[in-house]
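To close the chapter, one final illustration. This time we ask the reader to focus less on the individual chains and more on the assembly as a whole: which components sit near each other, and how the overall shape emerges from the parts.
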Amino acid sequence: MSEVDLRDLTEVDRLIHEPARLVITTILYTVKEADFTFLQRESGLTKGNLSSHLSKLEEAGYITIRKQFLEKKPQTLCAMTKTGRKAFEDYRDQFNQIMKHINGV
Amino acid sequence: MSEVDLRDLTEVDRLIHEPARLVITTILYTVKEADFTFLQRESGLTKGNLSSHLSKLEEAGYITIRKQFLEKKPQTLCAMTKTGRKAFEDYRDQFNQIMKHINGV
DNA sequence: ACCTTATGGTTTGTATTACAAACTAGTTTG
DNA sequence: CAAACTAGTTTGTAATACAAACCATAAGGT
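The assembled structure is written out below.
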């Protein structure tokens, strides 16, 4: 078993595969909730890119975005959904197989 | 050492990161030379996509494309260059680190 | 009071892309 | 000689990833 079919790679979840979002989802997978500025510091992305990547993850149902004011300043809080965690785990598992294949060359 | 900075992920070589090309380069890394139809069978890509991905890899200097006639039929032979092998190895090494990070969550 | 700067973002513009579908060129088969 | 097969390339298009411009509010400086 575990016959890794390289062709499966072309069906990898591109929403997570995209490097910027892989950074974001990896961070969000490990913390219950993270705010925009924290994510920006950790990811190194510009505000604009971070904003649009977060929107895409939200549209896909992978994260939830909650907005509030903290000490008179706007705050955007992001958290992974169950769907998002599952997608991340699937991607991780699939890519582990791929890397096993690649390393086993 | 080996402090994996997740942010480095955003600088990953997208020419190889793209799933279709990761399939192609993984195949080409293991064989000295492969023809178009073999690559198509192995990758599961359509001719059109395979053709354009190969062109991109060639433009990047990652592979060489050689054309000849075999039994009156055109044959396109692809082989990885030294540059391509290096790029593939760099990608592999970098992504192994990333996956270690992701798995170590 | 009013500029300037800082904070925390979103929207817009653009060049690149990845894919499918259409096309090309030559060959074999009926 | 027409239809179908082989081996690809080119074209059209919708989606993308990024940067740059923009917006709103708050806080300081003078």
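The mean pLDDT of chain A is 94. The CA atoms of residues 13 and 90 of chain A lie 9 Å apart. With these observations in hand, you are ready for the problems at the end of the chapter.
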